[in-house]
Amino acid sequence: MKFLYNSSSHFNLANMFTFVNITAGLLALYFITQENFFLAIILAWIGGAFDIFDGKIARKYKLSNEFGIQLDSFADFLSFVLVPVFLIFQAIYSSSFSGVMLLIAGAISVYYVISGLRRLIEFNINSDAGEVSRHFIGVPTPLGAILLWLVYLAQTYSLIPSFIVFFLMVAIGWSLNSKIKVPHP
């Protein structure tokens, strides 16, 4: 069990938490395909909890390494970019739109995915293992996911019409790569 506290191990404790995040994200995608949106959201939040703890564990036990940084970004892409975009596309766009409007919804979804991927790559290029800055430049992908889930809930409970989701998704996607400073928790 020494490998759990070895920073050079790909299966150290922090990375194991990241693997749980990845598993939760994959299961969330599956349940979205089954139109079980409630369970998908629960799994996404479980993935989010493990994302918080993997970083705290990596810093506390000095387990940060390049592999862990890349693994964490992959998990973030899956759980905080693909899952919420797929949820919105399946739950809102595909049931509200057809034809050209559905193509526009698809283009906006691709825009958000590319924005999230760009944000994560940029973060990896500019971060060093074990270091934590006081703030993020641009909205981090977990916060972007929370904002998208709030948009999903607002539309689900008829607080906003479906076409407003287009504009909110574009705005949140833009904010991922903006110069907005967000305090690091």
Automatic annotation (TrEMBL):
Single annotated GO MF: phosphotransferase activity, for other substituted phosphate groups
Any single GO BP term: phospholipid biosynthetic process
GO cellular component: membrane
Superkingdom field: Bacteria
Protein localization: Membrane
Membrane topology: Multi-pass membrane protein
Keywords: Lipid biosynthesis, Lipid metabolism, Membrane, Phospholipid biosynthesis, Phospholipid metabolism, Transferase, Transmembrane, Transmembrane helix
Transmembrane segments annotated in the record for this chain: 12-31, 37-53, 74-93, 99-120, 132-152, 158-176
Pfam families for the chain: CDP-OH_P_transf
Family: Belongs to the CDP-alcohol phosphatidyltransferase class-I family.
Protein name in the entry: CDP-alcohol phosphatidyltransferase
Organism: Sulfurimonas denitrificans (strain ATCC 33889 / DSM 1251)
